[in-house]
Amino acid sequence: MTGVLGPAWTAKPDTPEDTGRQPLAVEAVIGSHAAALVPGVITTTPHARYLALHARLAIEARKRGWTEKHDLDRFRDLVRRAEVVLGAVSVAHSADQPGEHRARSGDFGAHGVNTIGREVRETNAADVGRLADAYSQVPGGYLQTYAGIEWLVGLTDGGRVPTPGPAADDLLLSALDEVVGLAGREQPLSRRDLNQLRHLCLCGIDDAPDGECVRRAYFVDRDGDQGSARIHRHSASLLVGALDGGEVSGSLDMAMDRWCCFTPGLPDLLGSDELQHHALTWRGALLRNWSVWAWRLIWAELVSPFAWRPGTREEAIEQFVAQLPDATVRQSLVGDLPPLVDAGNGRPLPAEHDLYHHPRNANGWTLVDLLRLLAVGAGRLAHLDPVSREAFIGTLPDDLGPEYMARWLDRNNDRPLADAAADLAAHLFQRAESVSRQKLQWTRHGLRLPTRLRRIGDRWRLEGEEGSGSVSLRLPTFTSVMHQLGVLAVAGDTWTAGRHVEVIR
After folding, report:
1. Adjacent-strand bridge partners of 286
2. What pLDDT digit, counting tens, does each position of 86-114 carry?
3. Secondary element (H or E) of residue 126
4. What whole-number distance in Å separates Cα of residue 272 and Cα of residue 284?
5. Where are the beta strands (DSSP E) in 260-342?
6. How far apart (Å, rounded) are the C-alpha atoms in residues 324 and 195?
7. What's residue 130's pLDDT?
8. What does residue 43 show for φ and ψ, rounded to 5 degrees?
9. Which candidate, 109, 60, 107, 59, places its Cα nearest to that of 87?
10. Hey, where are the domains in the chain?
11. How many angstroms separate the CA atoms of 24 and 41, rounded?
12. How far from chain centre, in Å, is Cα 352?
């Protein structure tokens, strides 16, 4: 059994990867919004053609009569080999014509790109059988990774040996018959073979018949689709509006933030009431994500001294507040904020962007501006429209939301900022311990409570680094799929509407 050096919540995890994630539990509201605004999309499903491939393989399983549990191994072997074919063609095209490939498919590499790419570079060929054994540690390759979105859009039933769904058009998906045939090939695919198969590259789906199949699945309403097609159309429409004319190298989240939150006359630009409502929901989610990011950065800053040497909580808190100005909470966090709304028309102003781009944050956020970012969130409560406000607050209790911060400001307005922040830091330590206790599990090694903080006597050590990035609303993945399907396109270094943009209108 794992030894315990302090309280039970510091029990050593099974593996380094098992250490605590989301120690303050403030991220769930963003995950909930992502699931509602881009349903079925997750951060690991960036390629449209894998959806088409898995639907085509489901058709193949039906043809071969693979419907029972004992057929699973044969089907998984087919999936792995077919994914290798798709990956090898894409890797070779990306290496030979990187500009063209990137302009049509974006920056995400094919699944298994490291393993497949190494073999293609070193041998100038791709041994499908050998690579199928090596490119993924998961028995079914990336089938289960994509199963959720494939089920939601009706391409498969999401099963372990899936059956074709109502959106799986046999004729359109026959464009991938060649992949199925090549999956059974014993002789390696030479570089010449791969070059002649470029029509099967990940970047080639937009004008291919299987691309039409996936577009219909994503965007065309059908019985039983739970409204996902309509939501995908609305989110894609907002995304195109946000990116059109912008630099490809720019931040997707910031572009969506500017479009949905701060664009003058947005209702007139969007037109329909339904799309306006969707944009306001995005507004609430995007604005809330600033506060969630602030909490993650504050926690990472608070515990960072423990990464260098063990110390006490009191020492960490003292170092934490030492960087704060000698002023009250009101003076620093309320009276010194950028304007939140236009005084003339009540339109939201980009206070979060003002703080982010301030020169004093050029080398990373200062602690006082992270607290100001939270204060901006609290201030938004009084000005947001009902739809945005509902999304902004969320439905989860006790998640350090903007209402919590508003109460904290009210209680501490006249206190010295350093004193109030010290109490807040102590509360965050207590919260992290409580969150970890709620994740208590028994494993084969004994008690496990995930946390990166380890107690050594009366001192603490941080194993690794706490996550401090912003929480994903899955825009990179969604953008990648929209780009590959031709809803978005790239002209030089600029985003533009794609040739198939009418499918979302």
Report:
1. none
2. 999 999 999 999 999 999 999 999 999 99
3. strand 125-126
4. 19
5. none
6. 60
7. 96
8. -70, -15
9. 109
10. 8-39+287-462, 48-225+497-504
11. 25
12. 21
